[in-house]
Amino acid sequence: MNSYEGLSLALNEADDYDIAEKSPDSRYIRYNQVLDRGGGETHVVYKGLDIVDGTEVSWNKLSVDDSLQAEERLQRLKNLLKAPLKHQNVIKYFSSWVDHETKTINTISELFTSGSLRQFRKKHKGVDMVAIKNWARQILRGLCYLHSHNAPIIHGNLTCENIFVNGNTGEVKIGNLGLGLAKTILEEQHNPVVDVYSFGLCMLELVTCDQNPKPDGLGKVKDMKTRQFIERCLCLVPEYSVSTRLSAAQLLQDPFLEETIFDFYERSTKFRLTGESRDENSIDFTLTWHAANLCGRARLEKIEFVFYVDADTTTKVTEEMVQELGLPKEDTSTIGDLMDNWIIKLVPACKKPSSFVKFSRVHADPTSVC
């Protein structure tokens, strides 16, 4: 019996009629409730449940053909799907496996109840350009993170259908990553410009609400600055050829995406750190700061984590924290200084904080102050 089978058996027999499938380790169960069909019959998203945490999850199934059974490519795909991806603008993946009998790739990820950005945009026609720019920055930050790996991770199928939104906070995350990687790997497309071009089409869709965006649809974009930005993404202007297409990091610095007075809190964050000794070897930290929601109003964000004095470092923990939360890099030293002061205060023997940090636990708890 595997580690979760006992818990699985605890589900009563009546529930079994609603359960369509279980993961190999029996931790995740799939229901027949279809949440989305991302690619017709080949890609179906179901609602699932993590029976250990008691939380709903997204269960993605991608049907594949025999070409995927080539062991070398299949192993590369499985390795990429297991890569730990931690960024606030990338969907969290919990498990993945390939079912050879049914020829399907299965991925378990966090569930966004507001659905895809395509669905959300279709529902909300009157979204302001400020909100669209906020979404654009978040998508690009997610791409920057993926492309910054030593072996860049290419989504390969970036569309508004594969980007998910939290309608309560305006947070967006790139999803269906494993499914995009499957196509990317098999077609041997390893260049990040593939995702940059797709991002340009996503922008075109968000601006025009055209769910089948094509470059020749730019005529629908009335605002000249918006159109020029999308053209730069798609390399439709002479100075930006395919070989010199801007990277996601470069697009983030584009003047078009500069924050306005409505969302200045994203960059001018103010931090407050509190610390409390858990025991002589560890400190419980709580960091709060101001960010901005879609309407540009301030909201309070909070994370909690544990610092182990004899094993951890402020440098490492702040670098990982800033990367995962998508904060400006210049905030690394600010947060690090706050931690150093608390460590010296709570652990008198530590005249100089440890130089190695382990990011032990992060818990996001956004609280609106609008």
UniProtKB/TrEMBL annotation:
Leading EC class: transferase
What are its E.C. numbers?
A: 2.7.11.1
Swiss-Prot/TrEMBL catalytic activity: L-seryl-[protein] + ATP = O-phospho-L-seryl-[protein] + ADP + H(+); L-threonyl-[protein] + ATP = O-phospho-L-threonyl-[protein] + ADP + H(+)
Recorded hits in InterPro entries, A to Z, give: Kinase-like_dom_sf (IPR011009), Prot_kinase_dom (IPR000719), WNK_Ser-Thr_kinase (IPR050588)
Protein kinase domain sequence ranges: 31-257
Q: Does the keyword Isomerase apply?
A: no
PANTHER family given in the database record: SERINE/THREONINE-PROTEIN KINASE WNK WITH NO LYSINE -RELATED
What's the protein here called? non-specific serine/threonine protein kinase
Species whose genome carries this gene: Actinidia rufa
